[in-house]
DNA sequence: ACAAAAAGTAAAATTTAATATACCAATTCA
DNA sequence: TGAATTGGTATATTAAATTTTACTTTTTGT
């Protein structure tokens, strides 16, 4: 479960500009209007939109807040459609017979999805991830017990659990049939 | 599928500080070392960590890049464990008999998870979301056809699809049994 | 206890983001 | 056509982020 460098230094300003322009156009308001609305000078907005600026966090916040979008939406890059099918033999993260996790899509740094298989009576201990990581686990079929912070939580089909992943946690399949899981690892959770 | 204001203006600097300190402590390096490593002055880092700063995007980037984490990880807030069970009657987003989506967890602004039910032969047309939104749909059971950008993609059990959600897209259940879905809406995808 | 490293403080200098104002060109629209 | 809006340019000013240097306090480790 890796994190890759999203962009180079020169691109940071470029993408926030592209995104801002997109969001603003989407709302159909002019630079001047937005400027007055959020209390940032017109020129500042203009420079940011053209990627020729190095805005301050407070300015970034004012923009995001004024447009009613999360800050991170301003810093994102897009791509398009892709599909991950069950059979697709992708690289396995942990293939110790008992627990198998396969990445669903090429990681884009901020969010990662995995499909997981936990064998009957199987048990898997996960080390703590980086601080700031949030983990979402959903049972697609079977049963699962998640132990985190010393507490065990039992999940059935279609149940989901969310917990901070920056501490050790244990997955157990208490049943006698295979458990299919769905993981979302988020490196950003406001 | 809403977006809520994550924090107030005064808090922006506070959280980036808390997170930075956490990440740095986690890597076990001192302020001075990190400062030289990423080319930012010690005092600047110190002020940021104490939440008494309004850092520039380039500084934020240098930090994130130096720590090998996505920028957004620096701007995130944490909470703890919570579970969403199938029966939990939560507020429904769209309850027109055919398609039902229920939020799995209280939205934290950056990422949203939903459990979805699509009736046999059911069809649901979703309006375009904000630009910058990425959508991940996983079939937990049943079948699904997703139409986006004029192309139809068929999914079976445990298949997943990812696409830009800033355009209209249609979900169809071509089978004669209920389809259970899992949605991840991400407002940040590097 | 001692030395070393790390965190924190203080003040002045430098760099630069942000503002303000006025002006220009292209576009929209009545 | 002509007024108004919008994106963009130019310049000078202000406010503030960042750096540098040096010094103090706290923590860590042998």
TrEMBL record, chains A, B:
GO terms for molecular function: DNA binding; DNA-binding transcription factor activity. GO terms for cellular component: cytosol. It comes from the Bacteria. The keyword Nucleotide-binding does not apply. The lineage of its organism: Bacteria, Bacillati, Bacillota, Negativicutes, Selenomonadales. It comes from Pelosinus fermentans JBW45. It holds the Pfam family Cupin_2. Gene3D superfamilies: Jelly Rolls, lambda repressor-like DNA-binding domains. InterPro entries: Cro/C1-type_HTH, Cupin_2, Lambda_DNA-bd_dom_sf, RmlC-like_jellyroll, RmlC_Cupin_sf, TransReg_Diox_bact_type. Residues 20-74 form the HTH cro/C1-type domain. This is Transcriptional regulator, XRE family with cupin 2 sensor.
